[in-house]
Write a structure and sequence with these properties.
Blueprint (H helix, E strand, L loop, with lengths): L2 H39 L3 H12 L7 H12 L1 E10 H15 L6 H9 L7 E3 L2 E7 L3
Helix pairs in contact: 1-2, 1-5
Length: 138
């Protein structure tokens, strides 16, 4: 399967995931509304604390599966317009980063899909290599 075909398939998958994420966020808004109503109705501080621990804490880690990607982007990648890094080398650097840091690893298809949509600077795929970024020397 060509890289461009994979990207098209990944775009479809991401679109579906975005719609599901939107549904989840709408549900979260409903839960937050209920939580606010419970605070007014239930003056018992123990009840409010329990609800906060169950409902509010998980919000702090909104997209844990993509956290590894964004941290990798911040910590390891260097934007450089004339630089090239092969698809294999880039994903291998990401895989090693996730193993070392204990972050969740995206599969290569998802990684490449998200990477292809970076904006500043926007990477360009050219003959099996990404142009516009390089991996930091370690």
């Amino acid at each position: 399967m060509e890289c461009s075909d994979r990207i098209v398939n990944q775009e479809k998958k991401i679109k579906n995931l975005e719609m599901e994420l939107n549904d989840l966020r709408q549900g979260l808004t409903t839960v937050e509304d209920i939580y606010c109503e419970l605070i007014v109705v239930a003056p018992d501080p123990g009840t409010s604390l329990h609800i906060e621990q169950v409902a509010a804490k998980p919000q702090n880690n909104d997209d844990p599966e993509f956290d590894g990607f964004w941290r990798f982007h911040e910590d390891i990648l260097v934007p450089e317009p004339s630089a090239y890094v092969s698809c294999v080398e880039l994903y291998e650097a990401f895989r090693k980063y996730c193993i070392i840091t204990g972050r969740e690893l995206l599969d290569q298809t998802a990684f490449e899909y998200v990477f292809a949509r970076l904006k500043y600077p926007h990477p360009m795929l050219d003959k099996g290599a990404w142009k516009g970024y390089r991996v930091k020397d370690r």
